[in-house]
Amino acid sequence: MLENPHVTSTARQPTAVIRFTIPRDEIQAVMGPAIGEVMATVKAQGLGPAGPVFSRHFRMDPEVFEFEVGVPVPRAVEPAGRVVASELPATRVARAVYRGPYEGLGQAWGEFIAWIEAQGLEHGPSLWESYVAGSESGSDPTAWRTEFNRPLVD
């Protein structure tokens, strides 16, 4: 279920991430280990995290995805292993919250894109989703919340 689609502005947010360019079908295999590695690095550096885990997608071809997995931090992380500093941009975004299991993300994104277009807005090629409450917060996937952010073209 998609909740509260709206337009808002974001502030620049430093992040600690691992970047990937991989076949689409490998995403689930790399997410868990990457999240664990990022969390261990930011904790070792005393940086938090300062918000929920996210994935930011730059290229989403049918076969290959270019994206980063990470967490917001209060200041730049020192590179360690695969973990590097990045940031979420200061920009105008369309935002909504999806409630439900991760298997429904694709359909929910389709509904969200339709909402953006129905508002006469134009979105850019990138997006990010923040995993506000997932499997770590309980076993009932109907309570899981994923925040969608799609930067808009002015």
Automatic annotation (TrEMBL):
Location of region: Disordered: 135-154
AraC effector-binding domain mapped to chain residues: 3-153
InterPro entries: AraC_E-bd, GyrI-like, Reg_factor_effector_dom_sf
Pfam families: GyrI-like
Name of the protein: Bacterial transcription activator, effector binding domain
